[in-house]
What does this fold into?
Amino acid sequence: MLAPLLAASVAAAGCSFRLLPAQGVVANPATRLVLPAQQQVTTVTVQQGNVTATQQIAGTIEPVRTALLYFLTNGKVETLNMVNGQAVHAGEVLATLNVGNLPFQISQMNLTLQRDQLQITDLENSLQTNPPTSPLQADQRMNQVQEAQMQLQADQLSQQSLQLQLSQQEIIAPFAGVLQDVNVQTGNDVGQYQVLAQLQDTSGGIWVAKLTAAQANIIAPGQPVKLSLSTDPQAALTTTIGSVQIPTSDATAIAQANSGLGGLTQPQATLATPSGYTFKASDVGAAFTGVVTVAEQDNVLFLPNSNTVFSFNGLNYVFLYKDGRTIERPVSLGLQGTQDVVITGGLKAGDAVVEQG
It folds into this structure.
């Protein structure tokens, strides 16, 4: 009987199996005839046509850029202008630490720089309106100009140092966008580089799908994709794979990615903007699914159900059903489609093949 023999063979050989010939079957290295099964069998027919291999993907529409917001030094949060979902402008001060009298020092240093510049201007003008009367006097007055210029440079460095100190105690929006994941309050003690929020640029969206390692090996730029967007499931969107990114093996980059400071933790594909799609800021964060066509072959022989093929010792077989008999037939396979499998040898169009399971 076909079913008991099949079950016994599967149990003995594991996931790869082969039907054993019944008694009275003529052994043949190429094909074997098995006596008719005493039960009804289901067959599929070898067809000729087009075969497509696809992969299912899923992802989200991400903002065109994201900035992690943090202080460059430790301290206590004194002012805070950050709320989840808040829209901010480029250059807007979002939070400050206790800066003491730094603003006053910077204001005073600005006045000092103005006085330094006025002194240099006066000394240079004096050389023109009241020229020195001797070489010694000329050297003395030129030295005065040089000393004033050196003082200006020293004060400029002091001002830059004060500005740097102030910048380390401020969080300023690097671009216009929307705040997300705010996790700080006024009065909190915060550490250097402690991420307090994210700023998302919602002026556009990037379609990003997470991939498995296996998918990253077969999904490539240019492959067509059919999409379904969660915020508009009725829209028929089509696009192509724009690029595929693979995580780096660099230990530092891996540590940064795992800590949330940027980088990839798994392969991903960036899709081109779908044709006919109009971006809305509310689409940022929306989920999508897609079907990627990774390979196509036209006008080929194929079996419409890959469950008709089994393997043994590295070779592929089917059970051809002919004249009430099953015939073990070695076959050569080509493209493995989503459901179909291309037959490159061993069968012809119209052959009936036993469906397993």
Remarks:
- Confidence is low (pLDDT under 50) at residues 1-35.
- Helices lie at 2-13, 102-129, 135-168, 213-218, 251-258.
- The first strand starts at residue 32 and ends at 34.
